[in-house]
Amino acid sequence: MNAKLIRIALASVTAATVAFAEGEAKAPAAVPGTIRMITEATFPPYEFRQGTEVVGIDVEICKAIAKELGKELKIEDVEFDSVIPSLIAGKAELAAAGITVTEDRKMKVDFSHPYVRTGIVFIYAKANPFEKGEEAKGKRVGVQNGTTSADFVREQLGQEPEMFDSPASAFAAMKAGKVDVVIADIDPAKAVIKGEPDYDISELLTVEEYAVAIKKGQPELLAVVNKVIDELDGSGRLDEIKDEWTAKAEAAASAEEVKAAAAPCGCVPCTSADCNKAACGCAK
Ligand code: ARG
């Protein structure tokens, strides 16, 4: 089974668990001595896979939180739109997935102090540039499921986005001519166009901040999370972590390119387990 299929299988297990947890008001507890982080690992440099391991800026932040608590970090990787529901259902103690603080989400979870100031951008073909939001009105706009990019398309453009399970698969769909333009957070967008001379990104369309989310009503845990983030920020360590993982994500992307070139897609309708799904432009 390839990594994506495993992830899809994981996501359905998660959905079932969420339904169970809501029905029974009972959630699986963390193994003693561990703390669980939930994320969606197609978002370099914040979280991405190196082999089977999930790595990135958010992982480093959560490792520092786990260390402060004297616990070992366990990571769960689910679809992005399951991250907050799974946190609420008690599947994890920390959610860190480049999660933008929004008013809507603040009603559901508590957020730490922000650790990144960022925003979303268009990813476009240089032959078909997009700079201002309105230019995408009436166009097919690809986004990752459940993200602020999807909100932007609905709220600012007044239309439904085309949904994908990662920024990279939305981009692959644009290359395959299935969408006109993609919207994603600027850092993963930069990672996606690396080594793609025919594509570019726009200026920021929004200003957003990322924070760690926890289930509401845990002031002690929130205080620890904030203390760790403040210390990482104040000591300059946060900037080091960002630089280090931005460089590592770039190196990983170049390695991926080499692999993709060696094994071009060629599988239609893109269901074979060994097919390179990103290169095929598969939506799901
Ligand atoms: N910042 C955006 C949001 O909160 C996108 C985050 C996507 N994160 C991810 N790990 N895929 O909606």
Q: Which structural traits does this protein have?
A:
284 residues, alpha/beta, D-Maltodextrin-Binding Protein, domain 2, 2 domains, 5-stranded mixed beta sheet, 3-stranded parallel beta sheet, 42% helix, 20% strand, globular, disordered N terminus, binds arginine
Model description:
The chain has 10 helices and 15 strands. The chain folds into 2 domains: 34-117 and 209-260, Periplasmic binding protein-like II (D-Maltodextrin-Binding Protein, domain 2); 120-206, 3-Layer(aba) Sandwich (D-Maltodextrin-Binding Protein, domain 2), CATH 3.40.190. It starts with a helix and ends with a helix. By secondary structure, it is α/β, with parallel strands linked by helices. Helix 2 (57-68) crosses helix 8. The structure holds arginine (ARG).
Summarize the SSE layout with pairings.
Blueprint: H1 3-24, E1 34-39, E2 42-43, E3 47-50, E4 53-55, H2 57-68, E5 72-77, H3 80-88, E6 94-95, H4 103-106, E7 109-111, E8 116-118, E9 120-125, E10 141-144, H5 148-157, E11 162-164, H6 167-175, E12 181-185, H7 186-193, E13 199-201, E14 208-210, E15 213-215, H8 219-234, H9 237-262, H10 277-280
Parallel strand pairs: 1-5, 1-6, 10-11, 10-12
Antiparallel strand pairs: 2-3, 3-4, 7-15, 8-14, 9-12, 9-13
This protein binds arginine.
Arginine is lined by residues 39-40, 42-43, 47, 80, 97-100, 144, 147-148, 185.
